[in-house]
């Protein structure tokens, strides 16, 4: 064999030998067990039983207590309007808002008075005829019973009827004259006026839309699961007095941040068919009176949020919503490791939740957001870790003092006294 033939054969034998050596001595992995040391520090809240005042959230639109259309009950030209008869103007009960031309109506009153005088004259004449008829019958009747026609009784009743009719016509004419003054039926505000000075209006013409200002009302929906948590002012057929309901704080940011205090006054008699919820009605008294630091009075149709004072629950477990994951479970710390706990909630608002089942008093609820973790992960409790570190630092400082005092041949207390005196001398200089 020549050298060219031997070289490939040698390479093959060397390769086979190396392969055998590697397969007979596989590398061993120096893998250690997962560390049991805590990987993160968490804040915890000890679970305890406490009293909690429930605050229910709702919303609604401001509506007037009474809203009505002001209608003319007489016809004529508008000759005068009040300075407050304008959109947004306030008025008091009995104020004259509009004055109509009353000259025609005054003439109608005089005509009715004349008709009444004539009717009374006719009645007096008929009464005289009746007396004469009675006297004639007594003289010529031979003791017999006279009928009604002979004594002119129907004629007398007709004369009385004419007087009554004339009196009614006069009363009606005076009432129409009185109605030429459009008077405010209650203390209120003009929502929208529809007529103005110089305009001729007829009977039943709409003049303006007005509403009362003694208080406003807001319809508030209550969630079905929250009905047991609030005192509802229910009214019964055989009970005359209806107690007032819960207090309510209303809030709006329409013009800055404003609040109003109100109270639930009644519960509606039917479930709303659209939302399948029960509505309560709250009212705000004197909403248009000027108050300290008030930017703007409340507006009709304004959207407001409401916080209703609910019942106070005793011996309940309250936790922050931020500690709840997916609305169904939380994490606790037991013996230094995380433990997942499934929970059921009795009630929940934007910040707090009342736990019905799943937790027990004394357990440590994890407040720190955990992200992607699993039950069984070792953790440190924040307060305990800090306390341990402070203790270690104090112990190390004490050891250094003892070592220094030993080198100087004095006690630790003497060394601390020397240092204190040196600081005092330094401050004095």
UniProtKB/TrEMBL annotation:
It comes from the Bacteria. InterPro entries: MdtA-like_BSH, RND_pump_MFP. It holds the Pfam family BSH_RND. One of its GO terms (molecular function) is efflux transmembrane transporter activity. One of its GO terms (cellular component) is efflux pump complex. Residues 71-210 form the Multidrug resistance protein MdtA-like barrel-sandwich hybrid domain. PANTHER family: MULTIDRUG RESISTANCE PROTEIN MDTA. Belongs to the membrane fusion protein (MFP) (TC 8.A.1) family. This is Efflux transporter periplasmic adaptor subunit. The lineage of its organism: Bacteria, Pseudomonadati, Pseudomonadota, Gammaproteobacteria, Alteromonadales.
